[in-house]
Amino acid sequence: MKSIKTLKNIKSLLFLIPTLSFFILSCSKNPVSTSDKPILLFSKSTVKIGEPMCASLTGQVNNTNVAWSSNTDAYIRPTSNTDSAIYIFTSPGTYTVKANFQSHINGSNDSTDGNIIVTDSIISDTVLGTCNVIGVKNLSADDQINLVPVDYSDTGLVFLAHSTNLYNYSPLLSNAGEIHITESGFEADISSVLIYPCSGSAIPAPAVGLVSLTGLTNRTYTLSFKLNNITYSGTMSVSDSNITFSWPYSSGVTLSPLIIQRRAH
């Protein structure tokens, strides 16, 4: 294996998960519905790309199964009792978050919704965290990682990575420095989660991180991610206009969409 310095086509690969970046989740503020129907609450009404947002519903009939949805392909993870859900948005815009539930008036199906603004910033530039205790937790054996290419420009390619399972204390994905680079491409080992028990939120959320790759030229690279001792491999073909991925997996480590357009200047 050659050293990173000898590689001409791949200049850097890293998880941008420094101890300086974290988010706080709380479902106790920002009500977005005020009628006599159940109240929809958002932890924040404006979020960045990749920043988990907690939505919750209160005032519905006891033991109601709440169905959560959105008018975009956001990642949605309901809690076990379905009264709340975590949303992660992967593109900027204004989107609707909707909760379907049973009416407390006549027992029929009803719904309430509210809008979320997603800025064009990515979570790597969130406010600095001041936590002098940072815990490391192994990923659950049954966890899965979702990869979303969110930016391709002159500076390189950025993936948003997030876990399927939930962890406490504002979790961030960590690759523990296990990055292997060859002339043909790269492999990143995803093994653990960084948690912030002194300042992070105790509300469970997906672990989120960024993978950044710079110095790409127009060619096809191998692409591998290792999760829980299983390696998932595919390719990415780089051109001036876009990057196309070949990724055959529907579980374990998933990647979508399979094409990302180069961002205009």
| Coarse structural class | mainly beta
From the alpha carbons, calculate the radius of gyration and give it in angstroms: 20 Å
- Sequence stretches where pLDDT stays below 50 over 5 or more residues: 1-14, 16-24
Give the neighbour order of strands across the main sheet: 14-15-18-19-20-22
Q: Describe the global form.
A: globular
Largest sheet: 6 strands, mixed
**What is the succession of H and E elements?**
EEEEEEEEEEEEEEEEEEEEEE
Strand content: over 45%
Calculate the terminal CA-CA distance, rounded to whole Å.
Answer: 36 Å
The percent range for helix content is under 10%
Q: Can you count the helices?
A: 0
Oligomeric state of the chains in view? single chain
Can you tell me about this structure?
This protein has a six-stranded mixed β-sheet with strand order 14-15-18-19-20-22, with no helix packed on it. Strands 1-17-12-11-21 form a five-stranded mixed β-sheet, with no helix packed on it. It is 0% helix and 51% strand. The chain starts with 11 loop residues before the first strand and ends with a strand. The protein contains no helices and 22 strands. Mean pLDDT is 82; it is low at 1-14 and 16-24. It is mostly beta strands and 265 residues long. The chain has strands spanning 12-15, 39-42, 46-49, 53-58, 67-70, 75-78, 84-88, 93-102, 109-122, 135-138, 145-153, 156-167, 172-174, 179-181, 185-190, 192-195, 205-214, 220-227, 230-238, 242-246, 253-255, 259-261. The radius of gyration is 20 Å and the shape is globular. It folds into two domains: 4-22 and 126-261, no CATH class; 39-121, Immunoglobulin-like (Sandwich), CATH 2.60.40.1080.
